[in-house]
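Team,

Forwarding the record for the chain on the shared tracking sheet. I've put the sequence and predicted structure together so nobody has to dig through attachments.
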Amino acid sequence: MAILWKPLVLVAVCAAAVAGPARAADCSAEIDGNDAMQFSKASIAVPASCKQFTLKLKHSGKLPKTAMGHNWVLTKAADMQGALTDGIAAGAAKNFVKDGDARVIAHTKLVGGGESDAVSFPVASLKAGESYAYFCSFPGHAALMKGTLTLAK
């Protein structure tokens, strides 16, 4: 029994050494949008331990942004429709986001096939228990291209 126990302890110690210190929270996410008007994720959890969170949007399609542009816009769920309506009215030159819209927590620029953009925002701007929505504000896209964002513990 003692012969088996020592190798097992050695294996456990070696495994812990290889694993290294506990991993810090991942304070970023990547989401993909395509020519079929789909995001690759339906939800994103932001660790509460992060100071900043970075979202990278990649457009994996081939169509230009004038035909099939995508952005990523974050609002409280209750503010989504108003921000979307005002964003569409703002037009493509403004990335379909109204200038100075206080309802918009964060947004990327509009990207076309093969392009990407990233946005960082302070996690302190999110509140535990609040419902958040992300969506593409290109006209007509939010019907399919939307998801939920939560502040995780």
